[in-house]
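RECORD TYPE: inverse folding
INPUT: structure tokens
STRUCTURE:
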């Protein structure tokens, strides 16, 4: 028995075939672009997603012969509006897109206090990445497209429809769109008339959505799990299975999550509905690996070389605020902007590169405090996965800034592994998340905090927060 996991991420489609004990048999990825036609806009063409899927399936080749089930996960807070025939009426508006900030603020004012408490897992506001804000913006600014829109699909739901003929949403990906009873609430129509009927039907992430039809080059007749968001799949692929388990998912953005017993919340933290015994609080930031990619381009130094240079710089010399496109957790402020601070004549690419690595770690530490408050417990150790975790230097910097040991998973693409694990659950190959984690998740290295950097990095974190507070008003919209 082998399992196929597919992750439709922000920068690429990734897929891998795994054995039942989590060993990778084969893997492939295909990049897709993000268009930024105007300041604050970030769009993707779903045709690029599908082309990427066809490419990775073709690259996996003979490894697909023994696959018995398929699992999928994908980026969330990216929204695609389609017509009756499933054709997109507008490019997908991604989670990085901030154009809907003013619209979102106006929509929040329409909600009762009770309804606000249910938006986005308890955040209490309709933010710029909420589906209602995207729908309202499309209706106001692209009325021709809105007139043709009949359904609202997350990337994962759209991918399921292409593979099986049926679009299926899941409650974990739909946090912020659901009432306490697990259904789409009436207040969605209060925000945008007709919105409540547009999302796909809901089902458990570890249930079977349908069977492959042969589309995309996959063999026909394979059961496909409903799947969920990439971050939740990465929790599973990172071994999060019990209260106290914590993870740092180092992808395009940085996502921290902590499992706890039911109950608890904190400002700025997303609380997911309990699922199969897992009660998870999470904080997604706006920039992680994207900040390194940006800095690499600005400095004219390849990412690998910039990491090598950064290794020779002392900690805490230059501050970097990674809010290049605003911030999500714990601030949820689309107007924040990125900065390098404290540079002098002796500052070069090494110091600026290290500042970027530390800045992303400081953003993670900013999330960790309220995350632990929501969970009512300390994260004693933190699992680490994602592309950013491939760097030993960055893992060590995060361990030092967070003052927590980091245990890096052997499978960096934890979302792909988690998608495969959902396929195992959906087809009855495992009875529980805990059983799967023990069988399929491995740790390859632990990074422990260096006590010699403690004082310097604590001081740097205080300056990071102070700089963020001081600079935020400078970038508020006029009249805001």
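DESIGNED SEQUENCE:
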């Amino acid at each position: 028995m082998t399992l196929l996991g597919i992750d439709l991420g922000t920068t690429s489609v990734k897929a891998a075939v795994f054995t039942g004990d989590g060993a990778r048999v084969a893997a492939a990825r295909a990049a897709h672009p993000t268009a930024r036609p105007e300041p604050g806009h970030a769009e993707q063409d779903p045709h690029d997603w599908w082309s990427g899927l066809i490419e990775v399936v073709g690259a996996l080749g003979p490894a697909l012969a023994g696959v018995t089930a398929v699992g999928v996960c994908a980026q969330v807070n990216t929204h695609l509006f389609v017509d009756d025939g499933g054709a997109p009426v507008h490019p997908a508006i991604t989670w990085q897109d901030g154009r809907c900030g003013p619209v979102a603020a106006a929509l929040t004012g329409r909600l009762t206090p009770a309804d606000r408490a249910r938006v986005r897992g308890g955040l209490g506001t309709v933010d710029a990445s909420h589906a209602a804000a995207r729908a309202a913006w499309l209706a106001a600014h692209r009325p021709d497209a809105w007139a043709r829109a009949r359904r609202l699909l997350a990337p994962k739901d759209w991918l399921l429809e292409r593979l099986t003929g049926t679009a299926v949403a899941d409650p974990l990906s739909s946090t912020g769109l659901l009432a306490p009873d697990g259904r789409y609430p009436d207040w969605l129509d209060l925000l945008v008339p007709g919105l409540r009927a547009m999302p796909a039907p809901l089902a458990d992430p570890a249930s079977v959505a349908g069977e492959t039809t042969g589309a995309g080059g996959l063999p026909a007749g394979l059961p496909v799990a409903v799947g969920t968001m990439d971050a939740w799949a990465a929790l599973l692929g990172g071994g999060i299975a019990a209260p106290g388990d914590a993870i740092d998912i180092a992808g395009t953005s940085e996502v921290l999550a902590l499992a706890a017993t039911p109950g608890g919340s904190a400002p700025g933290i997303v609380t997911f509905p309990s699922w199969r015994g897992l009660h998870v609080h999470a904080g997604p930031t706006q920039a992680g690996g994207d900040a390194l990619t940006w800095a690499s381009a600005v400095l004219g130094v390849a990412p690998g070389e910039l990491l090598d240079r950064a290794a020779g710089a002392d900690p805490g010399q230059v501050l970097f605020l990674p809010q290049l496109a605003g911030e999500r957790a714990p601030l949820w402020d689309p107007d924040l902007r990125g900065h390098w601070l404290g540079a002098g004549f002796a500052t070069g690419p090494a110091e600026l590169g290290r500042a970027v690595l530390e800045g992303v770690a400081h953003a993670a530490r900013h999330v960790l405090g309220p995350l632990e408050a929501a969970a009512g417990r300390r994260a004693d150790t933190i699992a680490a996965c994602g592309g950013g975790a491939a760097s030993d230097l960055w893992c060590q910097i995060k361990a030092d800034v967070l003052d927590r040991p980091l245990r890096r998973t052997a499978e960096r693409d934890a979302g792909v592994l988690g998608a495969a694990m959902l396929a195992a659950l959906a087809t009855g190959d495992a009875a529980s998340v805990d059983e799967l984690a023990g069988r399929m998740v491995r740790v390859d290295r632990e990074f422990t905090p260096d006590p010699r950097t403690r004082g310097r990095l604590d001081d740097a974190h205080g300056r990071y927060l102070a700089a963020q507070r001081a600079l935020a008003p400078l970038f508020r919209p006029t009249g805001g």
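NOTES: Residues 239-410+450-480 form a domain with the Nucleotidyltransferase; domain 5 fold (CATH 3.30.420.40).
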